[in-house]
Amino acid sequence: SLLGTMEEEDLGHFRSNVLWAIGRLAPSARDESEAAAPAVLACLDHADSQVRGMAVWCLKRMGMRERLAAREDLSVDEGQVEVYEKGNLNRARVRDLLHT
Q1: What's the predicted TM-score (pTM) here?
Q2: Is the pLDDT confidence value at 43 over 50?
Q3: SS (HEC) of the chain
Q4: pLDDT at 1
């Protein structure tokens, strides 16, 4: 499963791709999103800013913005992240994703 794959340690950028897939599916799969929430939330503490940023993006797509509210560390996170949306690869900082 995608969630099982995310828990492996040496996946590099693959983890952020799994988060992107979960986020893309989330609006049409709300029940499955709830099951994925703990694994996505755990990614907010990942050392790689790409993973942290994709976790923020994913949680927003899952309708879980409130779970980000208490994470003041993310509001000042300058880590870079690339997000593919609407046919474009966009670059931002993790903190910017909180407010878009």
Answers
A1: 0.85
A2: yes
A3: CHHHHHCCCCCCCHHHHHHHHHHHHHHHCHHHHHHHHHHHHHHHHCCCHHHHHHHHHHHHHCCCHHHCCCCHHHHCCCCEEEEEECCEEEEEEHHHHCCC
A4: 47
Please say if the pLDDT value at position 13 is more than 80.
Answer: no
Give dist(CA 8, CA 59) in Å, integer.
20
Q: Which residues contact 92 (CB under 8 A, 6 or more apart)?
A: 53, 80, 81, 83, 100
What would the two tokens of residue 30 be?
């709300």
Whether residue 98 contacts residue 75, with contact meaning beta carbons closer than 8 Å, is answered with yes
Residue type, 80: Q
